[in-house]
């Protein structure tokens, strides 16, 4: 699947495809933001597209990427099962829990869960 903007629960979402370059830093985030800008409010990215350093919070990569989305007022959704990673990292588990309480960044298991959150 290629990147496509689609309406989900009445919200324009850039759904990023499984295939493509890895997301490893702020410039990669800016590339996604550019693709979504003025066309989408939410960017849904498969967890598999993120570099492993994104999930190792001590590297700061996640913070840099998340901050770009916050600065440009676009919501970021990480889509996919990251339970093995959250099981191994208390810090990541805490980030996921706190993010999912808010509205700017969500971690969801699949697009159906995203649809439910957007509708809810």
Describe the structure.
The chain is α/β, with parallel strands linked by helices. The chain has one domain (17-110). Helices cover 44% and strands 20% of the residues. The protein is built from six helices and five strands; from the N terminus they run ββαβααβααβα. It has a five-stranded mixed beta sheet with strand order 1-2-3-4-5, with helices on both faces. Helix 1 packs parallel to helix 3. The longest helix is centred in the C-terminal third of the chain and has 12 residues, at 90-101. It is globular and about 35 Å long.
Strand segment tally: 5
How far is it from the N-terminal to the C-terminal residue, by CA? 27 Å
What structural class results from the helix and strand content? alpha/beta
Query: Roughly how many Å is the radius of gyration?
Result: 13 Å
- State which percent range the strand residues make up: 15-25%
In short:
With 120 residues, this protein is of the alpha/beta class. Helix content is 44%, strand content 20%. It has 6 helices and 5 strands, in the order E-E-H-E-H-H-E-H-H-E-H.
List the helices and strands and how they pair.
Elements: E1 4-8, E2 11-15, H1 26-36, E3 42-46, H2 52-55, H3 61-71, E4 75-79, H4 83-88, H5 90-101, E5 105-108, H6 111-119
Parallel strand pairs: 2-3, 3-4, 4-5
Antiparallel strand pairs: 1-2
């Amino acid at each position: 699947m290629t990147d496509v903007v689609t309406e989900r629960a009445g919200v324009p979402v850039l759904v990023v495809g499984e295939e493509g370059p890895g997301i490893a830093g702020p410039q990669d985030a800016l590339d996604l933001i550019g693709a979504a800008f003025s066309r989408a409010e939410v960017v849904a990215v498969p967890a598999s597209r993120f570099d492993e350093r994104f999930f190792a919070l001590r590297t700061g990569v996640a913070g840099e990427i998340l901050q770009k989305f916050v600065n440009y007022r676009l919501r970021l959704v990480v889509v996919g099962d990251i339970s093995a990673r959250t099981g191994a990292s208390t810090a990541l588990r805490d980030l996921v829990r706190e993010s999912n309480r808010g509205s700017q960044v969500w971690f969801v298991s699949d697009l159906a869960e995203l649809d439910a959150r957007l509708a809810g």
